[in-house]
Amino acid sequence: KTGKCLFTLKGNGDGSKSDCFSPDGKHVITSVFDTAMIWESTTGKLINVLNGHSSWFMDISKFSPDSKYVITSPQDGTAMLWDVLSGKKLITIDLEGGLAYGINWKDSMIFSSNNSMLSFYNIFTGGGEYSFSSIDSNGYIWLLSNGYYMADKNSIAKLYYVIGLQTLGFD
After folding, report:
1. Checking DSSP bridges between strand 149-151 and strand 46-50, what pairing results, if any?
2. Tens digit of pLDDT at every position of the chain (171 positions)
3. CA pair distance 59, 75, nearest whole angstrom
């Protein structure tokens, strides 16, 4: 109510790049360089240090709606799911060189982009669910994890499968 600083979070080095409050308001996550930190929001006490990434954080550090989990994803092509209270890493998701751009906790999905390919992964299993590739402004292809694909009629003519040095078209 006074606008006075209550406390300063110590240990953020040159400043944090990706900060957010947990939905229940009890915790704050900050990140600097390749490390994320979870703090109590009312006292500024450091709860957990989350190590394991190998690149800078820019934007993706998000709590689950129930505030039990947090997912981190800097620029190293991975995403990691953590237990907030214990600080235990639950899973590492290989984004296959892509960068994470969004998290959908309702459907347990994180999506990443690598060039023109959008890929969707399950947050809790790390499995690739499907990928989306835009052929051009008139066509699209969904590549499913079971090996099947879905495409609009404009893209079928542009879809090719390569076996060794042989290129096969689909009709």
Report:
1. unpaired
2. 788 887 777 765 556 666 789 999 999 988 777 788 899 999 989 999 888 776 666 566 789 999 999 988 877 788 889 999 999 999 998 888 777 878 888 888 888 877 666 778 888 988 877 666 655 566 666 666 666 666 666 655 555 544 445 444 443
3. 9
Classify 103 as helix, strand or coil.
strand
Q: Please give the model's pTM, rounded to 2 decimal places.
A: 0.73
> Which residues have C-beta within 8 Å of that of residue 165, sequence separation ≥ 6?
none
Q: Is 8 exposed, middle or buried (0-12, 13-18, 19+ CB in 10 A)?
A: exposed
Dihedral-angle region of residue 44 (phi above 0 means left; psi in -120 to 50 means alpha; beta otherwise) = left
| Cα 3 from Cα 7, distance rounded (Å) | 12
